Amino acid sequence: MSLILLIEQVLNGIQFGVMLFLMAAGLTLIFGVMGLINLAHGSLYMVGAFAAATVAGWTGSFTLALVAALAAAAAAGALVELLVIRRLYDRDHLDQVLATFALILIFSEGTRYVFGSFPLFLDIPAALSGPVVLPGGIFYPLYRLVIIAVGLLVAAGLFVLIAKTRIGIQIRAGEADREMIAALGVDISKLYTLVFALGAALAGLAGALVGAIQSVQVGMGEPVLILAFVVIVIGGIGSIKGALVGALLVGLTDTLGGALLPTLFATFMEPSSANTIGSAVASMAIYILMAGVLLFKPSGLFGAT
Amino acid sequence: MARETLINIALFALLPVTAGVAMVMDEPFIITLVTKAAILALAGVGLNIALGLGGLVSFGHAAFFGIGGYAMGVLASHAQSYTPLMETPILIEGTKSMLVIWGVAVVTAALAALLIGVLSLRTTGVYFIMITLAFGQMLYYFAISWPAYGGEDGLSIYIRNDFPGLNTLDPIQFFAIAFAVLAAVLFVAGRLAKAPFGLALSAARQNPERVETVGIAPFWLRLVAFIVSGAVTGLAGALFADLNRFVSPTMFSWQTSGEIMVFVILGGVGRLFGPVAGAALFILLEHVLGGLSDYWHVYLGLLLLLVVLFARGGLIGTLAGRETAHD
């Protein structure tokens, strides 16, 4: 494999990782602050993608589509939090898993009812389509670079929000001791709704951004959701830094595994079986990575022990 | 007699009675539905050993269900095409014998549960839920990307496997097999819950520190429970594949894990007959609501949400009133 191809794959891996970070950040925040495991996070990703595709279809504007995705996902998140999720904070994880599994069924079939089973398409805006030439003569799609930039900006913004702002201090205080900050006069239920809506908005943004490279369809959220789980398990649940590191690790492992393992296996076995075994192992690579991390650090790389 | 015992007897009788009535009325489709309920109940009984007794929220039981299914698919497909499974170092041939297939399904599922359990049980709480989910997905993607046994398309087996003395293609006889297995496993699971092992396991769920203090390591109790649980779900997978005469990676999917969990919860966690009630209700809903609307999963979701939020003992818990099965 040539160096250029390798660099391309690394960029693809980073782009994938950055998308996973947008999903994982919301999940890990919601778990860290409220102690809630939310399977319906993938549905919010889907809501964002569908809102973006619909609005882009009406107006033709990608910017409006992104705004719509953020707004729709945040609104759906806030609504679900008020109606259902809020009753689950004091329940055990089993109840949370089941109730949010039920939410997935409702969201998925509801979306299928409204939009039908056929995928929608969201076009990359003209200004961002086409390749750019990177130093070294590598052609790379501009849109994917923009995704990387947006993801890194959001990550930086999230770090500032958590570390520097009043809301961020309240969020961290909520993680540490929720009774105490309630006693200090912070409206804890409003804070919870806010955090949930923020997580939902990030998922919606990821859905809209990815929706322009893949098709927008029912069930698109769950594979990403499960990868986001792998990310936060590797990074340590509740840690934004862990989510970022975990997301990049998973993104790179998955992309590079798929590109390199068949070639690697071909060095010591015959090409046809190397291809089969290589791609089979590659499809499991991130789970093997996760098992390996948990073997040495049962609560993830940056998790509180 | 306690109300729950009466409900259990009624529930348990419901399956063969429905199948019998369907046979008299010559409705083989209904018999197949009841058989499906019995097999899914078996998968639920398996999960319930880990979940109800051990408090291990496994979101990856599709792994064992799928392994059982593929044990059947792989062995029967080799027998079907008269090609040996392996020639070196020893000759292993495919088989159409249900009993052999069950044995292989149980042993491979138990081995997988041992491996997954040793790794997963190092973690607790949400980590455990997610790591079991991830192992399930790992096998799912493996099944999809491994072309030898059908890959994404799955494997069709044309003729149901053999059981000595019975015609397995006759719906009522196949139902009898599935029901007998369910009855036997329920009996064993009931004894297990009352045996010293089951009591220690329950105690480890409620208060692991105390169990440790009296000199029993919760890890080994949980690992054994997880293995037994995986083996039972694997057996259910083999039967399920035989019922459909088809296996596909869907058996490994996380939705399957979720559904097995739904059977347990709809019926009532930690209740011996909970999965039977849950699976029967699930099949009934699938049949009735599925006939009314293509979007029946919405109603299933709403029902599940209501059960989780408001009817915490599940179906049996609601019917049996306040006499709880555990804690």
UniProtKB/TrEMBL annotation, chain A:
Example GO BP: amino acid transport
Name of one Pfam family that matches: BPD_transp_2
GO cellular component, one term: plasma membrane
Annotated transmembrane regions: 14-37, 44-60, 66-85, 97-122, 142-163, 191-213, 219-237, 244-265, 277-296
Membrane topology term: Multi-pass membrane protein
Protein name (Swiss-Prot/TrEMBL): Branched-chain amino acid ABC transporter permease
Keyword Transport recorded: yes
Record key words, sorted: Amino-acid transport, Cell membrane, Membrane, Transmembrane, Transmembrane helix, Transport
Family: Belongs to the binding-protein-dependent transport system permease family. LivHM subfamily.
Annotated GO MF terms: transmembrane transporter activity
Subcellular location: Cell membrane
UniProt main location, coarse: membrane
From TrEMBL, chain B:
Membrane topology per record: Multi-pass membrane protein
Keyword Transmembrane appears in the UniProt entry: yes
Gene Ontology CC terms, in alphabetical order: plasma membrane
UniProt keywords, alphabetically: Cell membrane, Membrane, Transmembrane, Transmembrane helix
UniProt main location, coarse: membrane
Entry's transmembrane regions: 29-51, 58-79, 99-119, 126-144, 172-193, 214-240, 260-285, 297-320
Pfam family, one: BPD_transp_2
Intracellular or extracellular location(s): Cell membrane
GO molecular function annotations of the record: branched-chain amino acid transmembrane transporter activity
Keyword Repeat listed: no
InterPro entries linked to this entry: ABC_transp_permease (IPR001851), LivM-like (IPR043428)
Protein name as annotated: Branched-chain amino acid ABC transporter permease
Organism: marine sediment metagenome
